Amino acid sequence: MNTIELSSVKASENQINKIKGLLEDDFLNPLEKTRISKLLKNDISKESASRILSYWLGIVEYANGSWKKISSGILEERKSGVQAA
How many CA atoms lie within 13 Å of 20's alpha carbon, on the beta-carbon side? Predict the structure, then answer.
């Protein structure tokens, strides 16, 4: 049986588009946006894209036929910190 490693599978178009969308967020500083832009210039694996999105947007899990957020990402924490101030 052949097993495909997630690290060798390219990120989906949806993942790439979500990562590109991060570049529009004002809660990322210029250095963070530069790092993300550099990552996008190369082929990103599905695994790497998942880690990037989990870090910035939070961890989601597929259960009972739908996606559920199980933890917040850095952006949500930054945004809630600004609102509380």
Answer: 10
Other CB atoms within a 10 A radius of the CB of residue 59 amount to 14
Q: What is the DSSP string of 2-49?
A: ----GGGSBPPHHHHHHHHHHTT-TTS-HHHHHHHHHHHTSPPBHHHH
- Tens digit of pLDDT at every position of the chain (85 positions): 445 555 689 999 999 999 999 999 999 999 999 999 999 999 999 999 999 999 999 999 988 999 899 999 999 999 988 655 4
